[in-house]
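agent> Task received from the user: take the single chain below, predict its 3D structure, and emit structure tokens. No templates, no multimer pairing.
agent> Plan: (1) validate residues, (2) run structure prediction, (3) serialize to tokens, (4) report one or two observations.
agent> Step 1 OK, no nonstandard residues flagged.
tool_call: predict_structure(input=
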Amino acid sequence: MNMSVLTLQEYEFEKQFNENEAIQWMQENWKKSFLFSALYAAFIFGGRHLMNKRAKFELRKPLVLWSLSLAVFR
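)
tool_result: status=success, residues=74
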């Protein structure tokens, strides 16, 4: 059985990544994740509330055509 090894090339930004600096930034800014999570939840539930009474889009046919075109041209 011939098993080849996949070698991945490192990009320049990966070579220059400073792990200690990233860890320090995360430790200093962990509270921001709660703020961003709350804003995200407010956006999602607020958007659902605002869009509740609007008419639905009928997108079944365009999405079928889109999926078919992706399958054919891939």
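agent> Step 4: summary for the user.
The helical segments are 12-15, 19-28, 32-51, 60-73.
agent> Done.
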